[in-house]
C-alpha cells in the first residue's frame, strides 16, 4: 500500500505543526526510537509501540491547572509485559509517573514497609521482605533479563503536546521495519485542548468569578499515522466508553474512518474483565471467568495473545 | 475566642452540605483522626494536620475526564518529616499516589533498578543496592521510629469533594486539643467545580464539537474552619501565584478575610528556594543560599522552624 495523502490526514498533520509547539527533546527521542527499531528489526524481531496513561492539557501557559484523563496506566504497563513474553521489543511511550512494567505489581505498597534492616554491627544491610512484595525474586529476574537484552525502551510524556509530537516521531522511527511494527494505542488522549494563543499566561484568579472554558478539538493523529507516517504498520486503537450501548458502533465507525487494523473496545466499569477486539471482518469477545480472576489471570494476556496472532497473519499477507 | 457565626462561614458550610455529596468513608476517617488527636493531645504533644497534593474535579459523573491542580505533593511530604523531627504528631491528608514522607526521597528511582538478588542455591534473598537508594538505612530507621510511635496518620483523598469533607472532619476531630492543633494547608485545592446536577452522566463525546465548560466557584472552607470548626487552632494557609507582583497583596488580603494566623506565600518558579511567611504583624522572607541548596538543605526545614516557634508563642498567649 503506497502512502496516499488525503485532506483529513494532511489537515491533522498541519494542525499538529501549527498549533502544538515541538518539545525540545523530541529529536533526541526520535533518534533513540529509530536506533531501537533498526536494531530489533534487523534481528528479525517485531517491535510494538505502546502508548499508556493520560495526557495533561494545560489551562494556563505557566501551568497551575490542567485537564486530565482518568488512567493509571495499568493496561499499558501490564500489556508491555505480555508483549515482552511474546517476543516483542517494546517502546513504552507513557505518562510521567504512570504505572510501569513490573514495578506496577508493587505500586500499592509503601517501599518502607517492604524493607528491613539486617545489621551485624558495622555493615547495615537492607533486605526486602518477600511477603510484602510477593514474587519479587521472579519478577526481578524477568525485569533484569528484559533490561539486559535491551528489549524495553521507555519514553515519557506529560502534556498532550509532548504526546502528539512523540507519537509522530515514534511512527516515523518505526516505519523502517514496515509490517513488523505494531502500534498499540492504549493512552487516554484528550479530545480537547486550549490553543496557546488563547491561553492566559498567569494563574486564573478565582476572584474573577465563575470559570468559562472553551476548548478546541484535538486533531485525530490516527489519520496521518495510518496514511502517511507508518502506512505498512499493524495499528490498534482503543475505544473506552461509559455507555455500553454505543460502544461497538463507535468502534466500527473508527475502523471505517481511519482504515486501521483493529479496535479494542471496552467499557469503564468492566474494562479489567471484558473487552471486544473489533476488526473489519471479525469481532472477538475476550472475557475472564471468575476462576481466571481468582487465579490472577489478566485480560491483557488474552488481548496480546489475540493481537499477536493477528499480527502474524498480517505480516504473512504483506510478505 | 468564642465561635461567632458569620454569614460567610455558615454560607460556605451550607454549600458544602448541599452541593458536595459526603463520601462513605468520612465517618470512619473522622473517628480515626479524633482518636489520634486525643491520644497525642493527652500526651502533651502538638498535632499538625498537613494537607498535600492536588484535588481532582470530575467533568462527568462516570468520570473519564477531570480538572486537576499541578502538585506532586513534595512540599507536604517533606514538611511532614520536619514536623515529626520537631516533635509533632502528623495527620497527613494527601492526594492518593502523591508524594509520601520518606518514600518521596526515592520517587524518581525504579524499584527494580535498586534491588539485586543474593542467591546461594535454594534461598534467594533480595537486597537493596544502597547506592541506588542513598541513605536508605538511616531513612528507614527514621520511618520505623515514627511508625512504631504511631506519630503519622495517613488519610487519602482523590476528588475535591472527598478533600472538603475530610478537611471538615479533621478540623472537628482536632478541636478537642484547642491551640495545640496546627493546620498546614499546603494542598492545591481547585477554585472551580461542576455541580453534580449540571454534570453529564456519560463520557462527553468529541463528535459533538468543541467543548464549553462552565464551572462554579468552590466555597472557601477557610472561613468556617477558622470561625466554627476549630476556632482555637493555629491555622496556616498557602498562596501560590505565578505572578510575583500580586503575591504579597493577595496573602495580606487572605489574612484580612479569614483572620487566621499566617500565609506561606510562594511563586511557582522559585517555590523550592524562597517563600515569605506573612502574618498580620510580620513578614519573614525565608530563602536558601546556593550553599544550602548544594548541601541538600530544604526550604521546608526553615518554614517548619519558623512556624513551630510561632505556634509556641501562640499556645503561650492562649494559655
TrEMBL record, chains A, B:
GO biological process: coenzyme A biosynthetic process
Protein name as annotated: Phosphopantothenate--cysteine ligase
Family membership: Belongs to the PPC synthetase family.
Reactions accelerated catalytically: (R)-4'-phosphopantothenate + L-cysteine + ATP = N-[(R)-4-phosphopantothenoyl]-L-cysteine + AMP + diphosphate + H(+); (R)-4'-phosphopantothenate + L-cysteine + CTP = N-[(R)-4-phosphopantothenoyl]-L-cysteine + CMP + diphosphate + H(+)
Domain DNA/pantothenate metabolism flavoprotein C-terminal: 46-99, 176-271
Listed InterPro entries: CoaB-like_sf, DNA/pantothenate-metab_flavo_C
Lineage top rank: taxon: Eukaryota
Source lineage: Eukaryota, Metazoa, Chordata, Craniata, Vertebrata
PANTHER family the UniProt entry points to: CORNICHON-RELATED
Protein role: Catalyzes the second step in the biosynthesis of coenzyme A from vitamin B5, where cysteine is conjugated to 4'-phosphopantothenate to form 4-phosphopantothenoylcysteine. Has a preference for ATP over CTP as a cosubstrate.
Pfam families in the cross-refs: DFP
Enzyme Commission code(s) on record: 6.3.2.51
A single MF term (Gene Ontology): phosphopantothenate--cysteine ligase activity
